[in-house]
């Protein structure tokens, strides 16, 4: 269980970008008489709101940061005739899927590092031609053990979007390269 304790700072004392003082605390990781920041209990780096370290994860065997990216694949046919969904509804589908997969995989190191990037987070939104293409992608991701969320819009029970948890680009790009950027 994850709790987030938020302490508002008076307006006159606010300094960007730290608008709130937050610490994420895992119920199962609270030592006797103290609290431990999650998901990085041994981290000594400065913390961002939410208790995440302010640092990028280094690439294995190198000193450069790994390029973490969250891919979101949205059905393009939803915006065209005969479905003609409004733009806001399509954006909502992508937001729902992206938030759901991040929530489900919050404890993953790559997810924490991605969130710690703050305004530098990289998200790529791609287009699947239709529901069949989306379902085929979901099956491919499942076969390769790639964490993702298929968003099913209710009550219509329509698969609208897939979001992957944040990954290093080189780990997942090969499964997504046939999709074009959503326009």
TrEMBL record:
Reactions mediated catalytically: an N-acyl-L-alpha-aminoacyl-tRNA + H2O = an N-acyl-L-amino acid + a tRNA + H(+)
Q: Which Gene3D superfamilies match?
A: Bit1 (3.40.1490.10)
Which CDD domains does the record cross-reference, listed alphabetically? PTH2_like (cd02429)
Highest taxon of the lineage? Eukaryota
Entry's EC annotation:
3.1.1.29
Q: Where are the transmembrane segments?
A: none
Looking up InterPro entries in the UniProt record yields: Pep_tRNA_hydro_II_dom_sf, PTH2, PTRHD1
Q: Provide the top EC class.
A: hydrolase
The UniProt keywords, alphabetically, are:
Hydrolase
Q: What is this protein called?
A: peptidyl-tRNA hydrolase
